[in-house]
Automatic annotation (TrEMBL):
Keywords: 4Fe-4S, Gluconeogenesis, Iron, Iron-sulfur, Lyase, Metal-binding
The protein's annotated pathway: Carbohydrate biosynthesis; gluconeogenesis
Any one GO molecular function term: L-serine ammonia-lyase activity
Name of this protein: L-serine dehydratase
Provenance organism: Slackia equolifaciens
Highest taxon above the source species: Bacteria
Coiled-coil intervals: none
Length: 547
């Protein structure tokens, strides 16, 4: 969890409709492509758990094909990936599997690929929430490859001296090793060494590694972070400016030990001891995290600026140009809400926030570009709160970007100690977490203390605890769109209560743990399977028509 970044919580910037089922699935296939010897010509995707039940409605099928074509998560061509695959000579098939006994995560896919050289590669991937993914099996051997770092993947005979040879090659090319792991079924057999590095791995290094007689194959997987960060800029994170300037990797690693907040109590204690808002504290952690990874330029402010721009576009474009969703369940609702804002029941802040939340989900469901915050299914809550606060109270973009950092801190703690995946914890883990993030961010915007921010986040989680995930027809459309609006309304109430100084008997950390336990207790049918709740009603079943 030390590697969890602001970018992992507020992000990725992606094409909808689901961070775990679209962006995460794409990342799995993209990593698979990087492990091939040549261009893929045929791919078979066997889908398990939630993937098997919702892959068409969530765009998982299009995303897997797009990843196999090498696309990025924010590439607007993802929706057309089937046609592009045909043009590229890539055939594909999907096999939904009902036997989940062999999987460790509900968002799992097995991929078998034949490439242009005739080589066959098989692998298993798991989409673990928020767009993150891990390769857990490669050609029958259990491994762990996340794509978070630059990685060199070496297929070898498990013999003495091979690991030393690989490490020596990296040293000769001045590439710093972040982690090293050897994976094998039994001693002396075929094995995989995966080394994650802080530096980009040149082709010459891979060629040098491959010269050893006991090495069968070498592949390089570049970090996904490179495509998300944007162009490096000289400006440092404004919230952390002057903190840890010029620190070395070793110094950053040491400092990160004290800033790797394991829970809300630790972060709150740090904020109060240093007299800092949550946004500043998490940006200090981010600076240390980046420096510990050998990244000299802290471009967090640049990243948050880009994120805010994408959020604003996703929340406002449907007001002028509504787009029908991929599944046909939603489209045009935000424009209708905007038309009655001044004549409806809600006050200006709530009315505007409701409109924005619904609009972002329209963008998401039409496979437009959104920011997962913390997931795509809950992507409307945080931007709705921030943009509505800006419209009503006049906050500038710099204040909103700081509030985004605050929200990232809350999302980080929930991710670390529970889950933000609907397939693991229900909608309380997605919209509930987003509502907690929005409540805390609004509390800081309005001058609340860190203690009040945590109270607001706890209030928001409490208000939505037990919320099930039941997408009708497996689509991130209904009831997801309206639940995003409910999430931002819940966040406004939660922040208002906290700002009034009303205490909670149960603190933030205990509330997160309670949410985790409730999520574990939810049956599979109520965790993003499209088999329970509203998804199992007669009207929903008639629309779906698959049963």
């Amino acid at each position: 969890m030390k590697s969890l970044s602001i970018r992992d919580i507020i992000g990725p910037v992606m094409i909808g409709p689901s961070s775990s089922h679209t962006a995460g699935a794409l990342r799995i296939a993209r990593m698979c492509r990087r492990l091939l010897s040549a261009e893929p010509v045929r791919a078979v995707f066997t889908l398990y758990g939630s993937f098997a039940h919702t892959y068409q409605g969530h765009g998982t099928d299009r995303a897997l094909v797009a990843g196999m074509l090498g696309m990025e998560p924010d590439d607007e061509r993802i929706r057309d990936s089937f046609a592009l695959a045909e043009e590229a000579g890539l055939s594909f098939a999907f096999i939904p599997c009902d036997d989940d006994s062999d999987i460790g995560h509900p968002n799992t896919v097995d991929i078998e690929v034949v490439d242009a050289s005739g080589g066959v590669t098989s692998m298993r991937g798991e989409s673990i929430g928020g767009g993150a993914a891990v390769i857990s099996r490669l050609n029958g051997i259990d491994v762990s490859l996340t794509g978070e770092y630059h990685s060199i993947v070496v297929k070898q005979y498990d013999r003495r001296g091979v690991l030393a040879h690989i490490a020596t090659c990296l040293n000769v090319f001045d590439v710093n090793i972040a982690t090293t792991r050897l994976f094998r079924k039994k001693k002396g057999d075929i094995a995989y060494t995966i080394m994650q590095t802080d530096d980009k791995i040149p082709a010459e290094l891979a060629a040098a590694v491959a010269r050893h007689a006991d090495i069968l194959d070498v592949r390089v997987v570049e970090s996904d972070r490179a495509s998300e960060t944007g162009a490096p800029v000289a400006a440092e994170c404004a919230e952390a400016q002057g903190f840890g300037a010029g620190m070395s990797v070793a110094e950053a690693e040491e400092m990160l030990e004290s800033l790797d907040f394991a829970n809300g109590a630790e972060l709150l204690a740090y904020c109060e001891a240093e007299d800092l808002p949550i946004s500043d504290a998490i940006c200090r952690r981010e600076r240390c995290l980046l420096a510990a990874q050998g990244i000299a330029v802290d471009d967090t402010k640049h990243y948050l600026h880009r994120v805010l721009d994408v959020m604003r576009t996703s929340a406002t474009r449907p007001l002028d140009a509504p787009q029908p969703s991929m599944g046909g369940l939603i489209g045009g609702e935000a424009q209708k809400l905007a038309a009655i804002e001044k004549t409806g029941l809600a006050n200006p802040l709530l009315a505007r926030a409701t409109t924005y939340a619904m609009a972002v989900l329209e963008t998401n469901a039409s496979m437009g570009c959104i920011v997962a915050a913390p997931t795509a299914g809950s992507s409307g809550v945080l931007p709705a709160m921030l943009l509505a606060c800006q419209d009503v109270h006049g906050f500038d973009d710099d204040r909103l970007e700081r509030a985004l950092a605050n929200a990232a801190a809350i999302g980080y703690l929930i991710t670390r100690n529970a889950t933000v995946s609907g397939a693991e914890g229900g909608c309380q883990a997605e919209v509930g977490a987003a509502s907690a993030m929005a409540a805390s961010a609004a509390c800081e915007l309005m001058g609340g203390t860190p203690r009040q921010c945590f109270a607001a986040a706890s209030n928001a989680l409490t208000g939505l605890m037990g919320l099930v995930c039941d997408p009708i027809a497996g689509l991130v459309e209904a009831p997801c769109q309206k639940r995003n609006a409910t999430g931002v309304a819940n966040a406004i109430v939660a922040a208002q209560i906290a700002l009034a100084g009303i205490d909670n008997l149960v603190d933030f950390d205990q509330t997160v743990e309670a949410m985790r336990r409730v999520g574990c207790a939810l049956p599979f049918e109520l965790r993003e399977s499209a088999l329970g709740g509203l998804a199992a009603t007669p009207a929903a079943c008639a629309f779906c028509g698959k049963c």
